[in-house]
Write a structure and sequence with these properties.
3-stranded parallel sheet; D-Maltodextrin-Binding Protein, domain 2; alpha/beta; 32% helix; 2 domains; 291 residues; elongated; 12 strands
Length: 291
C-alpha cells in the first residue's frame, strides 16, 4: 500500500511540473517561430509608412519653366521628358501611381537652401556637392552629366578645340550651378564669368552677344541649339571637376531618403533607369571633348 501511495504521489508531482513548464522547453516544430520572433516589424518603406508631407500623396518639386529633354511642353505632370519619367518611376517604386503624384514649383536655388521643404523630393538637374549636402539630403545619383560650351556659330569661340582656347573669352553661366565651378576651375578664364539668375537670362545674354559662350550641362546644350538658339552650336564637352552626379533633393536628415535610395537602386538593377535615360537623353555621342 505504501509503495502504491508513493507511486501515485510521484505521478501527481510530475503532472504539476509539466503544467508549470515554459513553451520554450519544447523544441520548436517545423514552421514555428521561436520566442521573440512571433511578429515581423513593418517595412519602413511600405507606402503607408512613408513620412510624406501629405498622406497618400507624393509631392515632387521642380523649377519653372521646365525645359526638354527633362520635361516636355513645360508640364512635369505629363510624364514626358527624362526627369518627369524618373520622378514617376521612383514614385511607382514607392507605391504611388501617377494620379497620386503632385508637382510643385521650386526655384533652383531654393531647392537646396537650408530649412523646411514644401516637397518630398525635388528633381531639377541638381548636382550633388559636399557644400549642398550640408543643408539637404541627396539621393543616390540618377544621372552623371558632362558640361558643354555653347557658342554662336559666328563667334570665334565656336571653333575652340581645347579648354585653353576659352581662357580669354567672355563666359556666361547660371548662378548656383556646377557649370560655374567647372568654368572657373577648368577653363580658368581671364575674366570672371558673368553670372545670371536663371537659364532664361543666360540664353538671352548669348543671343544678345553680351557673352561669347555659355556653359551648361550637355543635355541642356542639345536642347538650346536645337530649339532655343538654332544659331548656336555645341563647341565641345568636358567633365566637371569630380564628376557631375545629379541626385534627388530631400530635406536634411529626411526619413524618406533611404526609401528613395532603395527605389533608385531597384530602377538601376532592373534596367528601367537605363531605358529611361536612353529614351530621353540619347544622342550625346559625337560632341568633341575639350581638354
Amino acid at each position: 500500500m505504501h509503495r502504491l501511495l508513493l507511486l501515485l504521489l510521484a505521478g501527481v508531482l510530475a503532472l504539476g511540473a509539466a503544467a508549470c513548464g515554459s513553451d520554450d522547453d519544447e523544441a520548436p516544430t517545423s514552421g514555428s517561430s521561436t520566442t521573440g520572433n512571433a511578429e515581423t516589424p513593418s517595412d519602413a518603406c511600405a507606402t503607408d509608412q512613408l513620412p510624406v508631407k501629405t498622406p497618400g500623396t507624393l509631392t515632387v518639386g521642380t523649377d519653372k519653366p521646365a525645359y526638354p529633354p527633362y520635361f516636355e511642353d513645360d508640364d512635369p505632370s505629363n510624364g514626358k521628358g527624362f526627369e518627369s519619367a524618373v520622378a514617376y518611376a521612383v514614385g511607382k517604386e514607392l507605391g504611388f501611381d501617377k494620379a497620386a503624384v503632385k508637382w510643385t514649383v521650386v526655384p533652383f536655388n531654393s531647392s537646396y537652401a537650408p530649412g523646411p521643404k514644401d516637397f518630398d523630393f525635388d528633381i531639377n538637374q541638381i548636382s550633388i556637392s559636399p557644400k549642398r549636402a550640408e543643408r539637404v539630403d541627396f539621393s543616390t545619383p540618377y544621372y552623371t552629366a558632362p558640361q558643354a560650351i555653347v557658342s554662336l556659330k559666328t563667334s570665334p569661340t565656336a571653333d575652340a578645340t581645347s579648354l585653353s582656347d576659352l581662357a580669354d573669352v567672355k563666359l556666361g553661366v547660371q548662378v548656383g550651378t556646377t557649370s560655374l565651378d567647372a568654368a572657373t576651375e577648368l577653363i580658368k578664364p581671364a575674366t570672371q564669368p558673368q553670372v545670371f539668375n536663371d537659364s532664361n537670362d543666360t540664353v538671352r545674354a548669348l543671343k544678345a552677344k553680351r557673352v561669347d559662350a555659355i556653359v551648361v550641362d550637355l543635355p541642356t546644350a542639345f536642347f538650346l541649339t536645337a530649339a532655343q538658339v538654332p544659331e548656336a552650336k555645341i563647341t565641345g564637352q568636358f567633365a566637371a571637376p569630380g564628376g557631375d552626379d545629379w541626385g534627388l533633393v530631400l530635406a536634411k536628415d529626411s526619413e524618406l531618403t533611404p526609401c528613395v535610395d532603395q527605389a533608385i537602386e531597384k530602377l538601376e538593377s532592373s534596367g528601367e533607369l537605363e531605358q529611361i535615360t536612353d529614351k530621353w537623353m540619347g544622342g550625346q555621342a559625337g560632341v568633341p571633348e575639350l581638354r
